[in-house]
Amino acid sequence: MLTGVFLFLKFCAFLLLTAMAIYYKGVASFDVGGSTVDVHFAVLIFFFGFCLYFYGIIKKAVCRIFFRRSKYEKGLDNLQLAFSGILLKDKSKIEKFIGKAEKYLGNIPIVSWIKGQQSLINGDEQRAKAIFYSLCERESDTALGAYSLCQLATKERSDGEALMAINSLLKVSPRAQDLILQATAISVKNKNFAEAKKHLSSLARSDKSRLVEAAVYSEEGFHKKDPDLLKKAFKLAPELSNNAVNYAELLLAKEEYRNARDVLSKSFRAFPHQKVFDKYISAGHDLSNLDKIKLANKLIDAAPKSWIGYFGLAKLLVREEMLMSAFQNLLTAYEKEPLDFIANELRKVAEMLDSPKPPEAVRILSQPLKSKRIDFIWKCTRCGAEENDWTCVCKYCNGIAEYTQIQVEIPLLIA
Questions:
Q1: Domain check: are 53 and 137 in the same one?
Q2: Residue 133 belongs to what domain range?
Q3: Which of 22, 27, 44, 364 is deepest in the core (most CB within 10 A)?
Protein backbone atom coordinates (compact mmCIF):
# COMPACT_ATOMS: atom_id res chain seq x y z
CA MET A 1 0.00 0.00 0.00
CA LEU A 2 2.70 2.50 1.05
CA THR A 3 4.93 1.47 -1.85
CA GLY A 4 2.13 2.18 -4.33
CA VAL A 5 1.51 5.63 -2.83
CA PHE A 6 5.23 6.42 -2.96
CA LEU A 7 5.45 5.44 -6.61
CA PHE A 8 2.39 7.54 -7.44
CA LEU A 9 3.89 10.62 -5.73
CA LYS A 10 7.18 10.09 -7.51
CA PHE A 11 5.36 9.87 -10.84
CA CYS A 12 3.46 13.11 -10.04
CA ALA A 13 6.72 14.91 -9.22
CA PHE A 14 8.20 13.69 -12.49
CA LEU A 15 5.20 15.08 -14.46
CA LEU A 16 5.40 18.39 -12.56
CA LEU A 17 9.08 18.88 -13.45
CA THR A 18 8.36 18.06 -17.09
CA ALA A 19 5.50 20.58 -17.19
CA MET A 20 7.70 23.28 -15.65
CA ALA A 21 10.42 22.63 -18.22
CA ILE A 22 7.93 22.97 -21.07
CA TYR A 23 6.49 26.16 -19.58
CA TYR A 24 9.85 27.90 -19.21
CA LYS A 25 11.10 26.59 -22.61
CA GLY A 26 14.64 25.98 -21.40
CA VAL A 27 17.20 24.48 -23.83
CA ALA A 28 20.42 22.59 -23.15
CA SER A 29 23.21 22.73 -25.77
CA PHE A 30 25.64 19.85 -26.41
CA ASP A 31 28.73 19.77 -28.65
CA VAL A 32 28.56 16.58 -30.67
CA GLY A 33 31.31 16.05 -33.24
CA GLY A 34 31.86 19.79 -33.72
CA SER A 35 28.16 20.47 -34.11
CA THR A 36 25.90 22.06 -31.54
CA VAL A 37 22.82 20.09 -30.60
CA ASP A 38 20.02 21.75 -28.64
CA VAL A 39 17.86 19.56 -26.41
CA HIS A 40 14.80 20.88 -24.62
CA PHE A 41 14.91 20.56 -20.82
CA ALA A 42 11.57 18.77 -20.91
CA VAL A 43 13.10 15.97 -23.00
CA LEU A 44 16.03 15.61 -20.59
CA ILE A 45 13.81 15.53 -17.53
CA PHE A 46 11.53 12.97 -19.15
CA PHE A 47 14.50 10.77 -20.12
CA PHE A 48 16.14 10.77 -16.67
CA GLY A 49 12.78 10.35 -14.95
CA PHE A 50 11.95 7.43 -17.16
CA CYS A 51 15.28 5.77 -16.34
CA LEU A 52 14.87 6.27 -12.59
CA TYR A 53 11.23 5.19 -12.52
CA PHE A 54 11.85 2.00 -14.49
CA TYR A 55 15.34 1.31 -13.08
CA GLY A 56 14.43 -2.09 -11.63
CA ILE A 57 12.81 -3.34 -14.83
CA ILE A 58 15.64 -2.06 -17.00
CA LYS A 59 18.28 -3.61 -14.72
CA LYS A 60 16.54 -7.00 -14.79
CA ALA A 61 16.23 -6.89 -18.58
CA VAL A 62 19.88 -5.93 -19.03
CA CYS A 63 21.00 -8.70 -16.66
CA ARG A 64 18.96 -11.27 -18.58
CA ILE A 65 20.45 -10.10 -21.89
CA PHE A 66 24.08 -9.70 -20.91
CA PHE A 67 24.45 -11.91 -17.81
CA ARG A 68 23.38 -15.48 -17.13
CA ARG A 69 22.24 -16.49 -13.60
CA SER A 70 24.53 -18.91 -11.77
CA LYS A 71 23.63 -22.57 -11.44
CA TYR A 72 23.55 -22.09 -7.67
CA GLU A 73 20.83 -19.43 -7.89
CA LYS A 74 18.78 -21.52 -10.31
CA GLY A 75 19.17 -24.55 -8.05
CA LEU A 76 18.01 -22.65 -4.98
CA ASP A 77 14.95 -21.33 -6.79
CA ASN A 78 13.95 -24.82 -7.90
CA LEU A 79 14.72 -26.24 -4.46
CA GLN A 80 12.46 -23.66 -2.86
CA LEU A 81 9.65 -24.52 -5.26
CA ALA A 82 10.11 -28.26 -4.63
CA PHE A 83 10.03 -27.70 -0.86
CA SER A 84 6.81 -25.71 -1.16
CA GLY A 85 5.41 -28.71 -3.04
CA ILE A 86 6.29 -30.89 -0.02
CA LEU A 87 4.42 -28.55 2.31
CA LEU A 88 1.40 -28.46 0.01
CA LYS A 89 1.67 -32.21 -0.77
CA ASP A 90 1.58 -31.26 -4.46
CA LYS A 91 3.05 -34.28 -6.25
CA SER A 92 3.26 -32.61 -9.67
CA LYS A 93 5.07 -29.57 -8.28
CA ILE A 94 7.63 -31.71 -6.45
CA GLU A 95 8.20 -33.84 -9.56
CA LYS A 96 8.63 -30.76 -11.73
CA PHE A 97 11.20 -28.90 -9.66
CA ILE A 98 13.21 -31.48 -7.64
CA GLY A 99 14.88 -32.83 -10.79
CA LYS A 100 15.93 -29.32 -11.83
CA ALA A 101 17.23 -28.61 -8.32
CA GLU A 102 19.35 -31.77 -8.45
CA LYS A 103 20.63 -30.81 -11.90
CA TYR A 104 22.02 -27.50 -10.64
CA LEU A 105 22.98 -28.42 -7.05
CA GLY A 106 23.77 -32.12 -7.25
CA ASN A 107 22.43 -34.77 -4.88
CA ILE A 108 23.02 -32.73 -1.71
CA PRO A 109 21.36 -33.84 1.59
CA ILE A 110 18.38 -31.52 1.32
CA VAL A 111 17.66 -32.77 -2.22
CA SER A 112 17.77 -36.40 -1.01
CA TRP A 113 15.54 -35.52 1.93
CA ILE A 114 12.93 -33.96 -0.38
CA LYS A 115 13.06 -37.10 -2.53
CA GLY A 116 12.41 -39.18 0.58
CA GLN A 117 9.48 -37.00 1.56
CA GLN A 118 8.22 -37.27 -2.01
CA SER A 119 8.25 -41.07 -1.67
CA LEU A 120 6.25 -40.83 1.56
CA ILE A 121 3.67 -38.63 -0.14
CA ASN A 122 3.49 -41.19 -2.95
CA GLY A 123 2.91 -43.94 -0.38
CA ASP A 124 6.23 -45.70 -1.06
CA GLU A 125 7.52 -45.95 2.50
CA GLN A 126 10.17 -48.58 1.75
CA ARG A 127 11.82 -46.36 -0.86
CA ALA A 128 11.67 -43.43 1.55
CA LYS A 129 13.42 -45.50 4.23
CA ALA A 130 16.11 -46.56 1.75
CA ILE A 131 16.74 -42.91 0.87
CA PHE A 132 16.89 -41.89 4.54
CA TYR A 133 19.24 -44.78 5.42
CA SER A 134 21.57 -43.74 2.59
CA LEU A 135 21.33 -40.14 3.75
CA CYS A 136 22.33 -41.13 7.30
CA GLU A 137 25.57 -42.64 6.00
CA ARG A 138 26.42 -39.51 3.97
CA GLU A 139 25.55 -36.83 6.53
CA SER A 140 28.14 -35.44 8.91
CA ASP A 141 26.94 -31.97 9.94
CA THR A 142 23.22 -32.44 9.32
CA ALA A 143 20.69 -35.00 10.58
CA LEU A 144 17.86 -34.91 8.06
CA GLY A 145 17.93 -38.64 7.35
CA ALA A 146 18.22 -39.69 10.99
CA TYR A 147 15.45 -37.34 12.05
CA SER A 148 13.10 -38.68 9.38
CA LEU A 149 13.87 -42.29 10.30
CA CYS A 150 13.25 -41.46 13.95
CA GLN A 151 9.85 -40.01 13.07
CA LEU A 152 8.92 -43.11 11.05
CA ALA A 153 10.13 -45.45 13.79
CA THR A 154 8.16 -43.59 16.45
CA LYS A 155 5.07 -43.74 14.28
CA GLU A 156 5.50 -47.50 13.81
CA ARG A 157 6.76 -48.10 17.36
CA SER A 158 9.83 -49.82 15.92
CA ASP A 159 12.44 -49.78 18.69
CA GLY A 160 15.32 -51.02 16.54
CA GLU A 161 14.92 -48.39 13.85
CA ALA A 162 14.25 -45.65 16.41
CA LEU A 163 17.45 -46.52 18.29
CA MET A 164 19.51 -46.51 15.08
CA ALA A 165 18.04 -43.13 14.10
CA ILE A 166 18.62 -41.66 17.55
CA ASN A 167 22.25 -42.83 17.57
CA SER A 168 22.71 -41.14 14.19
CA LEU A 169 21.25 -37.93 15.60
CA LEU A 170 23.56 -38.16 18.61
CA LYS A 171 26.56 -38.15 16.27
CA VAL A 172 25.52 -34.65 15.22
CA SER A 173 24.36 -33.50 18.67
CA PRO A 174 26.07 -35.76 21.26
CA ARG A 175 24.75 -33.82 24.27
CA ALA A 176 21.05 -33.80 23.36
CA GLN A 177 19.58 -34.92 26.70
CA ASP A 178 16.15 -35.93 25.39
CA LEU A 179 17.70 -38.14 22.71
CA ILE A 180 20.03 -39.76 25.25
CA LEU A 181 17.10 -40.52 27.55
CA GLN A 182 15.11 -42.01 24.66
CA ALA A 183 18.02 -44.22 23.60
CA THR A 184 18.56 -45.39 27.19
CA ALA A 185 14.87 -46.16 27.67
CA ILE A 186 14.61 -48.18 24.44
CA SER A 187 17.76 -50.15 25.31
CA VAL A 188 16.54 -50.99 28.82
CA LYS A 189 13.09 -51.95 27.56
CA ASN A 190 14.72 -54.45 25.20
CA LYS A 191 17.05 -55.76 27.94
CA ASN A 192 20.09 -54.40 26.10
CA PHE A 193 21.75 -53.13 29.25
CA ALA A 194 25.23 -52.80 27.72
CA GLU A 195 23.86 -50.35 25.15
CA ALA A 196 21.96 -48.46 27.85
CA LYS A 197 25.10 -48.01 29.97
CA LYS A 198 26.94 -46.43 27.02
CA HIS A 199 24.65 -43.41 27.30
CA LEU A 200 24.93 -42.89 31.07
CA SER A 201 28.25 -41.03 30.87
CA SER A 202 26.70 -38.53 28.45
CA LEU A 203 24.00 -37.47 30.91
CA ALA A 204 24.59 -34.31 32.88
CA ARG A 205 25.29 -34.82 36.57
CA SER A 206 21.89 -34.06 38.04
CA ASP A 207 19.13 -35.73 40.06
CA LYS A 208 17.66 -36.95 36.79
CA SER A 209 20.85 -38.70 35.75
CA ARG A 210 21.11 -40.30 39.20
CA LEU A 211 17.62 -41.76 38.91
CA VAL A 212 18.19 -42.91 35.33
CA GLU A 213 21.41 -44.67 36.30
CA ALA A 214 19.70 -46.28 39.29
CA ALA A 215 16.82 -47.40 37.08
CA VAL A 216 19.20 -49.07 34.61
CA TYR A 217 21.07 -51.00 37.33
CA SER A 218 17.84 -51.87 39.13
CA GLU A 219 16.25 -53.30 36.01
CA GLU A 220 19.39 -55.24 35.11
CA GLY A 221 19.84 -56.49 38.66
CA PHE A 222 16.25 -57.69 38.92
CA HIS A 223 16.48 -59.36 35.49
CA LYS A 224 19.74 -61.15 36.36
CA LYS A 225 18.97 -61.61 40.10
CA ASP A 226 22.31 -59.94 40.79
CA PRO A 227 22.57 -58.48 44.34
CA ASP A 228 25.61 -56.36 43.43
CA LEU A 229 23.69 -54.51 40.72
CA LEU A 230 20.68 -54.03 43.00
CA LYS A 231 23.00 -52.74 45.71
CA LYS A 232 24.50 -50.25 43.26
CA ALA A 233 21.02 -49.08 42.26
CA PHE A 234 19.98 -48.83 45.91
CA LYS A 235 22.95 -46.60 46.80
CA LEU A 236 22.15 -44.31 43.88
CA ALA A 237 18.43 -44.00 44.69
CA PRO A 238 17.29 -45.51 48.02
CA GLU A 239 13.84 -43.93 47.50
CA LEU A 240 13.03 -46.52 44.79
CA SER A 241 11.07 -48.77 47.13
CA ASN A 242 10.61 -51.60 44.64
CA ASN A 243 14.35 -51.90 44.15
CA ALA A 244 14.93 -51.83 47.91
CA VAL A 245 12.40 -54.63 48.41
CA ASN A 246 13.92 -56.72 45.60
CA TYR A 247 17.41 -56.22 47.03
CA ALA A 248 16.21 -57.09 50.55
CA GLU A 249 14.56 -60.28 49.31
CA LEU A 250 17.87 -61.49 47.84
CA LEU A 251 19.60 -60.72 51.15
CA LEU A 252 16.89 -62.53 53.10
CA ALA A 253 17.29 -65.55 50.85
CA LYS A 254 20.92 -65.66 52.04
CA GLU A 255 19.72 -65.19 55.65
CA GLU A 256 21.36 -61.78 55.89
CA TYR A 257 18.52 -60.41 58.03
CA ARG A 258 20.38 -57.46 59.53
CA ASN A 259 21.61 -56.26 56.13
CA ALA A 260 18.13 -56.63 54.67
CA ARG A 261 16.63 -54.54 57.49
CA ASP A 262 19.33 -51.87 57.04
CA VAL A 263 18.44 -51.58 53.35
CA LEU A 264 14.73 -51.31 54.08
CA SER A 265 15.25 -48.81 56.90
CA LYS A 266 17.30 -46.50 54.64
CA SER A 267 14.71 -46.80 51.90
CA PHE A 268 11.89 -45.99 54.35
CA ARG A 269 13.81 -42.93 55.55
CA ALA A 270 14.23 -41.72 51.95
CA PHE A 271 10.59 -42.39 51.02
CA PRO A 272 8.13 -44.03 53.46
CA HIS A 273 6.17 -46.76 51.73
CA GLN A 274 3.75 -49.34 53.08
CA LYS A 275 5.43 -52.18 51.15
CA VAL A 276 8.83 -51.31 52.66
CA PHE A 277 7.32 -51.16 56.16
CA ASP A 278 5.68 -54.58 55.78
CA LYS A 279 8.85 -56.16 54.38
CA TYR A 280 10.94 -54.67 57.21
CA ILE A 281 8.61 -56.06 59.90
CA SER A 282 8.68 -59.52 58.30
CA ALA A 283 12.47 -59.40 57.66
CA GLY A 284 13.33 -61.70 60.51
CA HIS A 285 13.25 -65.33 61.48
CA ASP A 286 10.51 -66.41 63.90
CA LEU A 287 10.11 -62.95 65.37
CA SER A 288 7.52 -62.52 68.10
CA ASN A 289 4.89 -59.81 67.90
CA LEU A 290 6.68 -57.85 70.62
CA ASP A 291 9.91 -57.96 68.59
CA LYS A 292 7.99 -56.65 65.60
CA ILE A 293 6.70 -53.77 67.73
CA LYS A 294 10.32 -52.85 68.50
CA LEU A 295 11.15 -52.92 64.79
CA ALA A 296 8.16 -50.69 64.03
CA ASN A 297 9.40 -48.14 66.56
CA LYS A 298 12.78 -48.10 64.79
CA LEU A 299 11.06 -47.25 61.51
CA ILE A 300 9.14 -44.45 63.24
CA ASP A 301 12.49 -43.05 64.38
CA ALA A 302 13.75 -43.30 60.78
CA ALA A 303 10.79 -41.33 59.35
CA PRO A 304 8.93 -39.58 62.20
CA LYS A 305 6.97 -37.31 59.85
CA SER A 306 5.25 -40.18 58.07
CA TRP A 307 1.90 -41.60 59.18
CA ILE A 308 2.78 -45.09 57.90
CA GLY A 309 5.01 -46.05 60.84
CA TYR A 310 2.44 -45.03 63.47
CA PHE A 311 -0.37 -46.75 61.58
CA GLY A 312 1.62 -49.97 61.17
CA LEU A 313 2.65 -49.95 64.80
CA ALA A 314 -0.99 -49.48 65.87
CA LYS A 315 -2.02 -52.62 63.99
CA LEU A 316 0.68 -54.60 65.82
CA LEU A 317 -0.44 -53.16 69.18
CA VAL A 318 -4.04 -54.17 68.50
CA ARG A 319 -2.89 -57.78 68.13
CA GLU A 320 -1.32 -57.56 71.59
CA GLU A 321 -4.53 -55.95 72.90
CA MET A 322 -2.60 -52.80 73.81
CA LEU A 323 -5.60 -50.77 72.73
CA MET A 324 -4.85 -47.41 74.33
CA SER A 325 -1.33 -47.34 72.84
CA ALA A 326 -2.80 -48.42 69.51
CA PHE A 327 -5.35 -45.58 69.72
CA GLN A 328 -2.64 -43.00 70.51
CA ASN A 329 -0.57 -44.13 67.53
CA LEU A 330 -3.60 -44.01 65.24
CA LEU A 331 -4.36 -40.54 66.54
CA THR A 332 -0.79 -39.45 65.74
CA ALA A 333 -1.08 -41.00 62.28
CA TYR A 334 -4.35 -39.12 61.71
CA GLU A 335 -2.73 -35.85 62.77
CA LYS A 336 0.09 -36.49 60.29
CA GLU A 337 -2.35 -37.33 57.48
CA PRO A 338 -6.11 -36.85 58.13
CA LEU A 339 -7.29 -39.74 55.98
CA ASP A 340 -10.72 -41.34 56.27
CA PHE A 341 -8.92 -44.67 56.17
CA ILE A 342 -7.12 -43.91 59.44
CA ALA A 343 -10.25 -42.38 61.00
CA ASN A 344 -12.17 -45.58 60.37
CA GLU A 345 -9.45 -47.58 62.12
CA LEU A 346 -9.72 -45.11 64.99
CA ARG A 347 -13.46 -45.81 65.11
CA LYS A 348 -12.84 -49.56 65.37
CA VAL A 349 -10.26 -49.23 68.16
CA ALA A 350 -12.39 -46.66 70.04
CA GLU A 351 -15.32 -49.10 70.01
CA MET A 352 -13.08 -51.70 71.66
CA LEU A 353 -11.96 -49.28 74.40
CA ASP A 354 -13.81 -49.14 77.69
CA SER A 355 -16.09 -46.14 78.24
CA PRO A 356 -15.76 -43.23 78.42
CA LYS A 357 -14.14 -42.73 75.04
CA PRO A 358 -11.18 -40.33 74.88
CA PRO A 359 -12.19 -36.77 73.89
CA GLU A 360 -10.01 -36.97 70.75
CA ALA A 361 -12.05 -39.93 69.59
CA VAL A 362 -15.30 -38.04 70.14
CA ARG A 363 -13.99 -35.11 68.09
CA ILE A 364 -12.74 -37.21 65.16
CA LEU A 365 -15.57 -39.73 65.11
CA SER A 366 -18.18 -36.95 65.12
CA GLN A 367 -17.01 -35.97 61.63
CA PRO A 368 -18.73 -37.56 58.62
CA LEU A 369 -16.53 -40.43 57.42
CA LYS A 370 -16.46 -42.59 54.35
CA SER A 371 -15.17 -46.13 54.31
CA LYS A 372 -12.02 -46.11 52.23
CA ARG A 373 -8.70 -47.83 51.91
CA ILE A 374 -5.32 -46.29 51.08
CA ASP A 375 -3.27 -47.42 48.13
CA PHE A 376 0.10 -46.50 46.66
CA ILE A 377 0.47 -46.10 42.93
CA TRP A 378 3.23 -44.96 40.62
CA LYS A 379 2.45 -42.08 38.27
CA CYS A 380 4.48 -41.10 35.21
CA THR A 381 5.34 -37.41 35.47
CA ARG A 382 5.75 -37.26 31.70
CA CYS A 383 2.42 -38.59 30.42
CA GLY A 384 0.37 -39.23 33.58
CA ALA A 385 0.13 -43.01 33.17
CA GLU A 386 -0.46 -44.92 36.43
CA GLU A 387 0.88 -48.33 37.45
CA ASN A 388 0.51 -50.42 40.59
CA ASP A 389 4.19 -51.41 40.57
CA TRP A 390 7.23 -49.33 39.77
CA THR A 391 8.60 -49.79 36.29
CA CYS A 392 11.82 -48.49 34.82
CA VAL A 393 10.39 -47.40 31.46
CA CYS A 394 6.88 -46.06 30.87
CA LYS A 395 5.19 -48.30 28.30
CA TYR A 396 3.07 -45.39 27.06
CA CYS A 397 5.65 -42.64 26.45
CA ASN A 398 9.04 -44.44 26.77
CA GLY A 399 10.00 -42.11 29.60
CA ILE A 400 12.77 -43.55 31.76
CA ALA A 401 12.79 -43.08 35.56
CA GLU A 402 9.68 -40.89 35.30
CA TYR A 403 7.44 -42.73 37.77
CA THR A 404 6.91 -41.11 41.18
CA GLN A 405 5.08 -42.55 44.15
CA ILE A 406 1.73 -41.10 45.17
CA GLN A 407 -0.89 -42.25 47.68
CA VAL A 408 -4.58 -42.32 46.87
CA GLU A 409 -7.76 -43.14 48.76
CA ILE A 410 -9.89 -45.77 47.07
CA PRO A 411 -13.53 -46.32 48.05
CA LEU A 412 -14.56 -49.75 49.27
CA LEU A 413 -17.86 -51.19 48.03
CA ILE A 414 -20.03 -51.93 51.03
CA ALA A 415 -23.16 -54.02 50.66
A1: no
A2: 107-202
A3: 364
